[in-house]
Amino acid sequence: MPDDKKIIFSGIQPSGFVTLGNYLGALNNWTKLQHQYNCLYCIADLHTITVRQDPEKFRKAERELLMQYIAVGLDPELNIMYYQSHVPQHAELSWVLSCFTYMGELQRMTQFKEKSQKYSDNINSGLFMYPVLMAADILLYQTDLVPVGEDQRQHLELARDLAERFNKIYGDVFKIPEAYIGKVGARVMALQNPSKKMSKSDENRNNTIAIMDPPDVIMSKFKKAVTDSDNEVRYSVEEKPGVSNLLNIYCAVTGYTIEQAEKEFQGKGYGDFKKSVAEAVIANLEPVQKRFAELKNNKDYIESVIKNNTERASKLADRTLSKVYKKVGFMPRV
Length: 334
Ligand code: TYM
Prior knowledge:
Helix content: 40-55%
Bound molecules: ligand 1
Strand order of the largest sheet: 1-2-3
Oligomer: single chain
Largest sheet: 3 strands, parallel
Structural class: mainly alpha
Number of helices: 13
Number of strands: 5
Strand content: 5-15%
Shape: globular
Order of helices and strands: EHEHHEHHHHEHEHHHHH
Distance between the termini: 29 Å
C-alpha cells in the first residue's frame, strides 16, 4: 500500500442479506474513497457468531458478501477485502485490549442493551465483548478513518478511548481513528416503522430493502412504506419521519440535495413520490445486481481475491500486533 495515503478500515457482518441501510450508510461511501485512501474492508464474521448462526446459511452469506463488496464497485486490487476469521491477529489483539477495557464501558453500549433484549435467551460474553473486537479490527491497521453509519458511532468512541488509554501507558502505539459518517444515508430507517433503523435482522421483511431484491419487490416495499396523512413532501424528521426517510434515501441514490428533492415533488402526491424513490433505488442497484450475477459464475476469481487479500491484511496486522506484544512485555518468539 502506498505510504503517503491515509488508511481506512471498515466492515460489515455477514448476517443475512445486505440492506439498503448498509449500502447507503457504508458500502456506497467506501467506493467513493477507494482512490484517495488505502482501504481495508473486512467481512466481520467473528462478530456474527455473537448471535447463533446456521453454519450453512452463514457460509453462504459470507461467500455472497465478498461478491457484493466487489459488485458495488470495490476494486480488489485497490482495496484489501478479506474475512476477519482468516486473520487471527484480530482475535489476538482483541484479547489484549479486553484487559484495558472496563466492564462499565461495555455495559453502557446501546447496541449491547438492544441485542440483549432481542436475544434474551443467549446473552453471551461475546456479545458483551463485541465492541472490543471492533476496536481491535480498527486499531490493528493504524486506521485514520472509519466509514460507518450513525449506529456505530458509540463503538468507534470506545476504540478511540482504548487507543488513548494504551498509548498513555506504553507510548505511541496506536493511531487515534476518526469516524467518517456520510451526510445522507447515515441512518436509513425501517420503511414501516421510521422510528427505528433499517436492520438485517428485522422480522418484518417490508421494513427492509435488500440490495439484491428484484425490482418488483423493491417497488412493492416502497409503495407500502409508512408516510403520514398530509400529502406534502417536506423534510422534518420529527413531524414527518416516514417522508423524511424516503427523501433521505432518494437523495442518497440520486445525489440531489433535500431542497432539490422537495422542489421536485412539490404539489405531487405520495403515490408519485414513492414510485420515484423506488425507481431511483432500482436504477442505482441495477448494475450492482448485474455484476453480482456475473461474479457468481466466477469462483476462481473470487478465490484468488481471497488468497491475495488475506496475505496482505495479515502482514499489515502483524506489524501492529508485534509492537503491542513487545510493549506489554510478552516473551519474544524464538
Ligand atoms: P453492520 O454489519 O451492522 O452494518 C454494516 C454497516 O452498515 C451501517 N448500517 C447502516 N447505515 C445506515 N442506516 C442503517 N439503517 C444502517 N444499518 C447498518 C453500519 O453503521 C455499518 O457501517 N460492528 C459492525 C461491523 C464491524 C466494523 C468493524 C465496522 C466490525 N468491525 C470495524 C467498522 C469498523 C456491524 O455490525 O455493522
